[in-house]
Amino acid sequence: AFAAIGAIVLALLVLRLPDDAPRSEAKGQIVAYPAIGGAGAGVAREESVATPLRWRDPRVLPWHLIGVIGGHGHAVLLGVIGFLVIDRLGVSPGGGGDVGAAQQAVGIVMMAGAGAQLLAQWALIPHLGLGPKRLMIWGLAIGGAGAALTAFAETLHALTIGFAIVSLGMGLFRPGYTAGPSLAVEEEEQGAVAGMVTSVNGFAFIAAPAAGVLIYGLWAPLPFLIVAGVFAALAAWIWLRVDNVT
Description:
Blueprint: H1 2-16, H2 61-89, H3 99-128, H4 132-151, H5 156-184, H6 190-218, H7 222-241
Helix pairs in contact: 2-3, 2-5, 2-6, 2-7, 3-5, 4-5, 4-7, 5-6
């Protein structure tokens, strides 16, 4: 199914997306300022050499650190939530439980999380009109509270609500992180910063899920409690150290 979706998207890109490549060479001389009657037309604009945007650029580095830490916390929870549902409800196939019941329970919790994340991005963010800094602070606070609740949830309803709260928070946090670096740089640097943001989002899912499962094996609530604490500390750091961008 995922391969089919990818093929459909590829076909739409090839067939429907307009080509943004220039169709002809620019003609005429570039001038430094507008002129009346051609006066000053011979003054060419001074060419500037763009400096590549670097990861350690102070305008974007704090945002990327926030994205790495918050993204890793979210990836940890996504990696262990299925195991927590199976263990708490006693529907493990290996323990004599029903495979169908395990799949259904995990599916319900994951679907509630996806719905909550869409609710945040499609409804709450446009309605509230919060800037990137406040989006991240509220997202981390809500996500941390949901993680703490999920850590000790014993029923399917409690697990569903807890993980939905986590996902609601992440639905606020991720757009805040995406917007922050973009607003912190100039127009000509948007392509570079977009690539950085995409890399940070993907980087969080390399080792974090496996690390989460390792911690989960020590004590089931532990990864959720660690993430809750990290989210609280990160929200406080953002509040005190990160400037607003508009």
